[in-house]
Specification:
Elements (H helix, E strand, L loop, with lengths): L1 H5 L10 E3 L2 E2 L2 E2 L2 E2 H21 L8 H20 L8 H17 L12 H23 L17 H13 L1 H34 L1 H38 L3
Antiparallel strand pairs: 1-4, 2-3
Helix pairs in contact: 2-3, 2-4, 3-4, 4-8, 5-7, 5-8, 7-8
């Protein structure tokens, strides 16, 4: 039974303690999820430090990649928010770099995909939701509530439309977090299942699922980058709504 659980496609998503810790009856153990979040932060810091170390006029490999990352997020903010979004570049860039690094680290053999954990993605989504809502109220005051009143809606249907708009707004952290976690979990589960077929079929027939596994691995790397992009674009869209009250 234990062996079956170990080879289950879902076993790769199990959070396991590395250094068990208890504080006032609460489990605050340093887990495999904590480890890979730490590695993601270290990887981003080292990448940017290596990229900006020389600051050459003719950029090297790491400097080019760091500058491309900077320009990519800058253009994303410009296209989805406008000039008013420049002041929020640090938090948006940090989110993008952390999510894409966690996604890509999860593609390494025997690694742990942090972004497959709904508690992690929801924590980021909730932070974004609370931050964006606070910005909206600070910038517009009670006028922000007009965001929930669709322009041109007949008076008799306005209460229903306000309820629907409010419900959709409150669902944002849920949809934002579930979209990322579900995509990462589904892809890695599929890779694990097909990998099991490679082992089960052996050398004679295993090349067929192995070929499929290779193709899907490339596709999953693309999905890892795409999901980080989608997550960050949606953050920009939500921030644009808060700043400009656009539906």
């Amino acid at each position: 039974m234990a062996e079956h659980a170990q080879h289950s496609p879902m076993a790769q998503f199990e959070v396991k303690p590395i250094f068990p810790l208890q504080l006032a009856g609460h489990d605050i153990s340093y887990t495999n999820a904590s480890l890979f979040m730490t590695l993601a932060v270290v990887a981003v810091v080292l990448f940017l430090a290596a990229g900006m170390r020389k600051r050459a006029l003719v950029p090297g490999r790491f400097q080019s990649m760091a500058e491309l990352s900077y320009e990519f997020v800058t253009n994303m903010i410009k296209d989805n928010i406008g000039a008013s979004g420049r002041q929020y570049f640090p938090i948006i860039f940090t989110l993008f770099m952390f999510v894409i690094t966690c996604n890509l680290l999860g593609m390494l053999p025997y690694s742990f995909t942090v972004t497959s954990q709904i508690v992690v993605t929801f924590a980021f989504a909730a932070m974004v939701f609370l931050g964006v809502t606070t910005i909206a109220f600070v910038r517009h005051g009670v006028d922000f509530l007009k965001f929930f009143v669709p322009a041109g809606a007949p008076g008799w249907i306005a209460p229903l439309m306000v309820f629907i708009e409010l419900l959709a707004y409150l669902a944002r952290p849920v949809t934002l977090s579930v979209r990322l976690a579900a995509n990462m979990m589904a892809g890695h589960t599929m890779l694990k299942v097909i990998g099991g077929f490679v082992v089960a079929l052996g050398f004679t027939l295993g090349w067929m699922p192995f070929l499929l596994l290779t193709l899907l691995t490339g596709f999953e790397i693309f999905v890892a980058v795409l999901q980080a992009y989608i997550f960050t674009v949606l953050v920009c869209v939500y921030l644009n709504d808060a700043l400009h009250l656009h539906h």
